[in-house]
Write a structure and sequence with these properties.
The protein is mostly helical. It contains 13 helices and 6 strands. The strands form 2 sheets. Strands 1-2-3 form a 3-stranded antiparallel β-sheet. Helix 1 runs antiparallel to helix 2. It is globular.
Amino acid sequence: MAKEKQDALYYALEEARYEAGRIERQYNSVEPEKYLVSRTLSERWQQALEKVVELEQQYAQALSEQQTISAEEKKQLFELANHLQRVWEHPNSDARTKTRLVRLLIHDIWVKRVDDKKIKATIHWQGGVHTECEFYRRKWGSKTKEQKTNRQIALDQLIKKLALICDDTEIARILNRNQYQHTQMENATTWSQSLVRQLRQKFSIPEYSEEVYKTRNLVNLKQAAQFLQVSMSTVLQMIRYGVIDAHQVIKYAPWEIAESELDKPEVNTFLRSIKKGKSVTFNKEQLGLSLEAKMSKNNKV
């Protein structure tokens, strides 16, 4: 019962976070002179953020409640601990899985300045063990000509990739949200559709074509949700769980999902569980037990 409560709160929290992010994107895209629209969105954004905070508190409280685990769950946890390195190094263990694993293992990190060049980080692991590491500090200051050139090349390549999946207006919003600077446009402070178009034309980058996009057999988040007849937040959950493989060129960019991903058996299993009101548990969500099973199978061959 406690697990079902946690799952319900988790899904509600993810939905609230997505909604807050959606309103934030709307707010940031409004022209400054549209005061009434901006004010209304600001109020809605604040309400959405308050809901996120409230659900975060409820979710944290649910996690802190005493729970008992079954013998099978305990066995899985020990299997994970015994083969942690193999799970970490397995090709199917992606960055998302490793990030979740690190968050489970680390309690907190304390950072202290050693001198002008170095900092010392003390990692507090779950269980009480501490590890100290020293790092060279990143040097802040003016960029060299070579660094600026590399930055501009990276930006050009980024726009080239974004132009495959969205139009100039959307590209401008994405660049603004990521605070990308554009040294080519000295008199501008933010990206706009016209600035994106100018830069595309300068570097001979074709504009977005819906016909070309369709030939790549890809769908975005909204299209995937419509196809599966679920909310976009549910699709996001499947992406985060690793049920659906998806790609973003950069943060705030549209998700790119292969159409074949929507027909996978794992997707149908997930959706059936959601519709029946059952708690959804996947081995990928449990940080690699499915990977361990794959490795065991390969070792027998």
